[in-house]
Amino acid sequence: xxxxxxxxxxIKLKPTAxxxxxxxxxxxxxxxxxxxxxxxxxxxxxxxxxxxGYNEQSAQLTQxxxxxxxxxxxxxxxxxx
Length: 81
Description:
Elements: H1 17-48, H2 54-69
C-alpha cells in the first residue's frame, strides 16, 4: 500500500439558514463578476480588436468589486454560527 499525501480534504458543511443566504449571495456576485469580465473581453476583442491583459482586467474587476459588490453581510463575522 502506498502512502499518499493529500493537499485537500473534503469537509461537509452544515450552514445555518442565514449562512445559506449569504453563500447564495456570494455565488451570485461571483457569477455576475465573471460574466462582466467575459463580456468586457468579448466587446473589446470584437469591437476594437483589442485584447485586455489579465493584470489590467484583474485590477479593474477589483475596483468594481469594491464599489458595487461589497456588502457588510460578506464579512466573516456574519457567517459564524
